[in-house]
Amino acid sequence: MKMIIGGAYQGKIRFACNWLDMDRADMINGSTCDFEEAFSADVIKSYHRLIARLLAEGVDPVEFTKKLCEQNKDAVIIMDETGCGIVPIEKSDRTRREVTGRCGCIIARESDTVIRVICGIPTYLKGAPNEG
User: By three-state DSSP, how is residue 86 classified?
Assistant: First the structure.
């Protein structure tokens, strides 16, 4: 498993397309995909939005993420960092942010490569540029 994280609009998808030599149309979108699709997808972009949808549907995102890591070990997960900045006033927004962080920790732990992209520049947090 591989993980690409970073702030919103920092070039994560462009980096992934170049790194993986693929088109963004070949990635499933966490904003719109069927939940089951994630278990066989090569690349999932906007995983943080999938987590929000799982919460809204009453599905435990932490358990879903653990299952994803077990069943789709070759997936590349792209997600926004959501834990920085002002703490949300609404409890539901704080819950979503906390759960997203927990899921990100699970994915990072299970990944052999974790890359943070800021301003289009990748920084390898886990693994090396020539791995994967």
Answer: coil
